[in-house]
Amino acid sequence: MSLEQSDVENIAHLARLAVSPEELEGVAGDLSNILTLVEQMNAVDTGGVVPMAHPLHMAQRLREDSVTESDQRDHFQAIAPETEAGLYLVPKVIE
Amino acid sequence: MHDKTLTELAAGLRAGEFSSVELTRAYLERIEQFDTDLNCFISVARERALASAERADARIRDGSADALTGIPIAHKDIFCTSGLRTSCGSKMLDNFVAPYDATVVARLEAAGTVMLGKTNMDEFAMGSSNETSFYGVVRNPWDRTLVPGGSSGGSAAAVAARLCGAATGTDTGGSIRQPAALCGITGLKPTYGRVSRYGMIAFASSLDQGGPLTRSAADAALMLQAMAGFDPRDSTSAQQAVPDYSGQLDADLRGLKIGLPREYFESGLDAEVAASVQAAIAEYRHMGAEVVDISLPNSGLSVATYYVVAPAECSSNLSRFDGVRFGHRCEQPKNLEDLYKRSRSEGFGAEVKRRIMIGTYALSAGYYDAYYLKAQQIRQLISEDFRKAFGQVDVIMGPTSPTTAFAIGEKADDPVTMYLSDIYTIAANLAGLPGMSIPVRPVAGRPVGLQIIGNYFQEGKLLNVAHRLQRESDWHLAAPVGF
Amino acid sequence: MQWETVIGLEIHTQLATRSKIFSGASTAFGAEPNTQACAVDLGLPGVLPVLNREAVVMAVKFSAAIGAELARRSVFARKNYFYPDLPKGYQISQFELPIVGRGAVEILLEDGSRRTIGVTRAHLEEDAGKSLHEDFHGLSGIDLNRAGTPLLEIVSEPDMRSAREAVAYARKIHQIVRYTGISDGNMQEGSFRCDANVSIRRPGGELGTRAELKNINSFRFLERAINFEIERQIDVLESGGKVVQETRLYDPDKDETRSMRSKEEANDYRYFPDPDLLPLEIDEAFIAAAIADLPELPDVRRARFVTEYGLGEMDAAQLTASREMADYYEAVAKAAGDARLAATWVMGALAGALNRDGLDVTASPLSAQRLGGLLARIADNTISGKIAKQVFESMWAGEASADQIIDQQGLRQITDSGAIAGIVDQVLSDNAQQVESYRQAEPPKRAKMLGFFVGQVMKLSKGKANPAQVNELLKERLES
User: Across the A/B interface, how many CB contacts are shorter than 8 Å?
Assistant: First the structure.
């Protein structure tokens, strides 16, 4: 599988990464090489094989519905880049 | 005293031969002496360590000490530590101080260990050489021109160089076992779910598992004893009782069935590494174990499968690093998209970005079935291979890594070649099985690791098998020259 | 030209758990920003989700209430996209294997007709936070208190053909989630939000392109938004244009829908099973325990009201609209000893007074016991219906029981025939001319004229004379 530069642009946008025009060719090459490695998978017929999402055969455990967390806003926001009036600030959200 | 194992250090502390404060100072001095060069540590917590050592000494005095009380250790910088930076080897988290402790950190703290600092690692644990760290490469104490392996390279090198009594690490595709092999120490990746992942910054959630890096199997048993156990804050944590690992160490190995997967000894494996591994296996024969040839037919696909599963999960796990609530934020974002793109592109290094993009692609519309679903299916096949094998044998053995430590820079520009250095370790993560690496006969002065893979929750068996070899040999006792 | 409308609804209902779906933070509404957003809700590095049992119990209840297929095994997936109110960069939801499968509800339309609307699925997921658009030096503020609140997203089949049907369906779902207690259904607080997929087509033709109307938080707006959208699409198609598949936002101030460009791009959500959570497996014991305290459901209760109390279908529907109203009604009926009288009063005087004062039935100053006590006095002829209205108003304003008011104000009906005879004779002698006219009138006209005398007697008795006795006595005197 060989990725075009436009594919890289699309992927980078989905992942919210900036790839500069100068980097595009190199990144496309690296990703294509990795995909070639990955495509070794096609050597095996997996028809009818149940996909495995977790290594262990366990079911989800359930938590009792009780409030166990208290307000730690100041503590949490001490590590935030930009806050005001208890809110996290971001460039204007347009709906 | 820095050359002692945890067992010996614990005995020394108990007997009053030295105090935890003295021991801690000794390690801090060694860090000061050697680490400018080795670069094992991202953060050293000198004052905090000494305060913690004083508390440990009080516990030892009043008789409330546990096995590890007063032992100075280091944590891989992927485990959140309240009040001390947790960088994950990334510029993204260069300013991140977690508001909580990882469960592993809390458990080892409760056991009375003294945290010396946080060790260097590949950025977000993505790498096999420690070269992707924002904080620079770690040098292998056996030869400073070599990589220590990765991603827990800082922890492995620090233990090998006797800069701490033991260290924690994480293993997503070999990140404990491979650096342990390359640095000549003992590393254990437990069964998925054995050690809590809470507070351990996620790379690939269905593969990540924390474990110890130590000088010996007996030390690993002590560390795992403290680290393992059910955690209600981790849905994937196993509700299995933790056995007494140290108590099983000396069990006899007569009749033990060791499986040697033929796929682990085929082309790609360095001949001298193979010979060294075979020499260790011969030791097991002498101890009365039976060696059986087995096959793991799909193991050749583990690297390919891993490079879909791990990037897919990481592409999602790393979306939270967006410059809004913590971590790196770009200067003067023009708009929301600019905030995301610049914060993430400035904060993440090349390898992390590569894996995010591969994973994004593998999950995207039109490619999900061909990549992600296919990988999940092969994961099932790989897992079934092991299930069949463990119907025949008690443990599986082979090399940890196809080569000894390689030179810094040698593979840095070739991701695919780098990925193949994890060819023997990845399958255990895909299946969720426990695996260990222990040092065997070095090749040209470079350490070699023997990998032992066990069945689910058979850490006790792995430690027993490893310990018996370490009783009969002294490869694990060798220290790099000058340390 | 004829157009047929096709509507499907996606309803997001917040589940009434104490804590969030994957964390132990409180779900209480209205807290200071970010004071109820814990490390898990904020998506800080290293934290992990653990599923709230009660959210699962509530989904099971809903499934039972609509007779749906319940998945014994369901899977949580990640829906990946970047948005500031989505802290982790993904929403934990259920995608391929939702907990609630196919079910159906029956809606009763205003003309008395019934329709069955299919429910495709309902799945558990976490809510996002909120972006506040007040200006912080050109920036937006993010409050993540709501992030992680459990939601049940209920997806209907495209079975509705008009805005009214869509509203009836939404009301039915609202009624069910409130009856079963799985949601407070509070639309102002965003506990019950509707997205509508609207398209038009030629009757019997292929489905048209749909527009998705987002985040509608009242039934009135739902009806208006759909009707606006139908008109818009007809205009587009009839002027030779094409309907574009897009997300549109309803603006109640302008009563129009407009395109939300910001939600358009990057709709590749890259769903995959969340590796931090394991498959949710529920067994028969879990289900039995979950539905053990399920109340009588609205449709069953409505049918029972018809048979047990002899009410009409629409009256029964009105009285069972909410569980609280139905409970209130049944308590009144029991205390009054007359179910139909109770229905008349609850739907009439009580509903009117509640509406006038803007109160919910649960906040009624007049308890069901007290109202029932009043109606019992009508039933046993202690007071007339007219006097009862007067007593009702006194009871609404105060604390006293019907009997206390009747006694204090001397409103007890006069049933003593001697006393009534005295008043009747007084009226007849005061109105001799009318008496003469009555006697000369043809019998068919007399009935109407009798009303005049009854009125005079009631007036003189201050409404207290027993009307039946008055009628009888007047006739006797006038005809003799």
Answer: 168
